[in-house]
Amino acid sequence: MDMATRRTFLKRSAGIGLVAVGGSYLRIGHAAEDHIYVTSSGGSFMENVRKYMAEPFEKQSGVKVTLVPGTNPAHAMKILSSRGTPPYDVAAFGGMDILRLIRADKLAQVDEKSVPSLADVPEKFKADWQGCGSMYDYSSVGIAYRPDKIQGGITSWKEFIERTAAGDFGKQVFFNNLSSNVRGAEVLSMFGRIYGSGFDDIEASISTLEKMKPHIFKFFTAFNDPVVLLTSGEGAIGPGWDGRTFIAEDSTNGLVKWVNPAEGAVSSGPVMAVVKGGKEDLAKAFMNYALGEEAQKAFCEAMLYGAVNRKVQYSDKLKDRLPDIDSVQLVDTELLVKNMSALLDAWNKRIAT
User: Fold this and answer.
1) Do 340 and 178 form a contact (C-beta atoms < 8 A)?
2) Does the record's keyword annotation contain Lipoprotein (predicted)?
3) Which residues of 96-130 are buried (b: 16+ CB within 10 A; e: fewer)?
């Protein structure tokens, strides 16, 4: 590490219990072999967390980072059932499971003193987590489509809904399956906002989808399904993720496209938090690095996701494609949890049958 980088890391670490010893940074009172355990999903997401967050932090701090792959509910259950030392030091997964940990008092409080990078993260990415965490990227669900099948393109959720209901796209429309945790609740909440009284208007959401249902050929269950359906030619249009569609667009010479609807894309992302009773000071140092400008830019450029640090300046390849950090639409997580039972009931009675 060069001297400028070393001084920067030391300055940022001074408030979170790290001291310099023999060229590396150690938690006060702990040995050089200290390391932290961080939850993760698998696949390319984990590999990019490793490459752009964990490994650079290891080089700067001398602290080993072990990424533990698994599902959000499984990670959360291990923390919830732990007694004494928790299995992980950093919880990094979906918001609904983070809320379970907050309610069980399993997460430590973080602030700009203990995690200085939080100062560069807009409040909306932190507001749901009651002082315990922050989203560390955002992906956005907009409209993915085949330009060769959708003449003139598409500009808004309202246009997509009304043209689907009118049969303009034939039976080549796909949509999120609510029960599969592929952001169906968030998209339906946007329908409630457009045609009803707000994100929590379940009747407006379901009645809107009922009008579209005759022309929907598949309620997809996996995050990569929209790209698969589009590139195979089986589907023509439906809700899809920005980054995944961009990758497909670039690899197929524009066979597929993604649009940020006029009403706004529906965005969400994983949350990072510090687990109580673990190596809290080292976990906060890792969280500080992960939310910092350097890690955010590198990770999000690789994943084609949005960065939550407002200092990030995207490359030319990405800067005009992602929804702007200030225009991102986030549905309140507590609201989603509160409404999920009633929404699922209406879905099962009126859509799934």
Assistant:
1) no
2) no
3) bbbbbbbeeebbbebeeebbbbbebbeebbbebbe
Question: Under DSSP, is residue 344 helix (H, G, I), strand (E, B) or coil?
Answer: helix
State if pTM tops 0.90: no
CB 107 within 8 A of CB 101: yes
User: What domains can be seen in the chain, in order of their start residue?
Assistant: 35-136+269-322 (3.40.190.10), 141-267+333-351 (3.40.190.10)
Q: How does pLDDT run across 263-321, given as a tens digit for each residue?
A: 999 999 999 999 999 999 999 999 999 999 999 999 999 999 999 999 999 999 899 99
Q: Is the dihedral of CA 335, 108, 89, 57 positive or negative?
A: positive
Q: How far apart are CA 39 and CA 45, in angstroms?
A: 12
In sequence order, the 6+-apart residues with CB closer than 8 A to the CB of 29 are none
**Alpha-carbon gap, residue 296 to 52, rounded angstroms:** 8
Closest CA to 236 of 107, 306, 150: 150
